[in-house]
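The instructor's notes for this session suggest beginning with a concrete chain rather than abstract definitions. Hand out the sequence below and ask the class to guess, before any prediction is shown, which regions might be ordered.
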Amino acid sequence: MKDPFDRSTEESGEKCGKVIDKPLVLIGLMGVGKTTVGRRLAKKLNLPFVDADEEIEKAADLKIAEIFERFGEDYFRDGERRVIARLMEEDRQVIATGGGAFMNDETRELILSKATAIWLDADIDILVNRVSRRDTRPLLKNGDPETILRDLAAKRNPVYAMAHHHVTGNDAPHDLTVNNIIKALRK
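After discussion, reveal the predicted structure:
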C-alpha cells in the first residue's frame, strides 16, 4: 500500500515522513471550509474523501435542512453519529464532518480514539461572510448569523480544542491551509 506522506509536496519539496493509518477527520464551525479543504487535503495525500453531511443526506434521502425541520436536531445528531461511525470503519480517508458532530459525546470519543481529529478554525467575521452566501444552514434560520456563530464558538471551541491538531485557516488560500495541516500532522 502506498504511503501518502512518502512523496514530495508540490509547495515545499520536503518529504512528509509520516504514515497515515487511520482516518483524518476535520471538525470546526460551519463555514470554516472543512469540505473544501478536506477535498484538497485528500487529493494531495492520495486518499479518498467523504463528506459526512452528504452521506447523511444519502442515508436519509433528505436534505439536512429537511431532517432538522421534520424530525429536529436530536434526531439528526443520532443519525449523524451512526453515519460517522460507519465512515470510521475505513482506515485511510479524509472525512469532513458537520459543525456539531464533535459535540456529541459518543461521536467525539469515536473520532478521538479511531482517527486523527483536525480542528479547522477561522475568525467569526470570516465565517459570517462565508455562511451568509447560502441559506441552507438550519442553525442560522432563526437569528443573526454573527450572534449565532459567536454563541456556537463560545460553546464549541473548548470542545473542538480536544482535537489532536488545531489549524487556523482564516482567509488564507485553501492550499496553504492544506499545507499547514500536513505540517501539523508531521509533528
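Then share the key points. Residues 1-16 have pLDDT under 50 and may be disordered. The chain has eight helices and five strands.
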